[in-house]
């Protein structure tokens, strides 16, 4: 996992007061019993959204579904590399994802 992406993800999550970074070898965020963001071993960031929102962001951001450890992660959108240069937008997307998982039935 690229060290620079780890530090960027840590910094990104530290700017969000409602949740924290979890994991040691696989970094992620979770709330309400649901993981909602993850940094894969390639340093790619996936963020979870509702089905409708996934489709919207895949189109808007010109991206695809997020893959981790060889599996397509259901509900996750791959954040384009260019978004790392816009931490405010990534923070907004993380908070939107947190809001989404908080509407789900707790696990």
Describe the structure.
The chain has 107 residues and is of the alpha+beta class. It has one domain (3-101): YgaC/TfoX-N like chaperone (Yope Regulator, Chain: A, 2-Layer Sandwich), CATH 3.30.1460.30. Helices cover 36% and strands 25% of the residues. The chain has helices at residues 3-14, 51-61, 87-101; strands at residues 27-31, 34-39, 45-48, 65-68, 71-78. Strands 1-2-3-5-4 form a five-stranded antiparallel β-sheet, covered by helices on one side. A hairpin with a 2-residue loop joins strand 1 (27-31) and strand 2. The longest helix has 15 residues, at 87-101. The termini are far apart.
Provide keyphrases for this structure.
3 helices, globular, 5-stranded antiparallel β-sheet, 107 residues, Yope Regulator, Chain: A, alpha+beta
Which structural category do the helix and sheet elements fall into? Answer: alpha+beta
Mean pLDDT level: 95
The SSE order reads HEEEHEEH
Strand order of the largest sheet: 1-2-3-5-4
CATH architecture: 2-Layer Sandwich
Proportion of residues in helical segments: 25-40%
Q: What is the class in the CATH system?
A: Alpha Beta
Strand content: 25-35%
Low-pLDDT regions: none
Number of helices: 3
CATH topology: Yope Regulator, Chain: A
The count of domains is 1
The tally of strands reads: 5
- Cα gyration radius (Å): 13 Å
Q: Give the CA-CA distance, first to last residue.
A: 29 Å
């Amino acid at each position: 996992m690229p060290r620079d992406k780890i530090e960027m993800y840590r910094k990104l999550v530290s700017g969000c007061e409602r949740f924290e970074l979890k994991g040691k070898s696989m970094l992620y965020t979770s709330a309400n019993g649901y993981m909602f963001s993850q940094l894969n071993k390639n340093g790619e960031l996936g963020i979870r959204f509702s089905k409708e929102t996934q489709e919207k962001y895949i189109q808007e951001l010109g991206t695809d579904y997020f893959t981790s450890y060889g599996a397509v992660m259901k509900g996750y959108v791959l954040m384009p590399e260019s978004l790392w240069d816009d931490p405010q937008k990534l923070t907004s997307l993380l908070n939107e994802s947190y809001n989404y998982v908080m509407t789900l039935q707790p696990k």
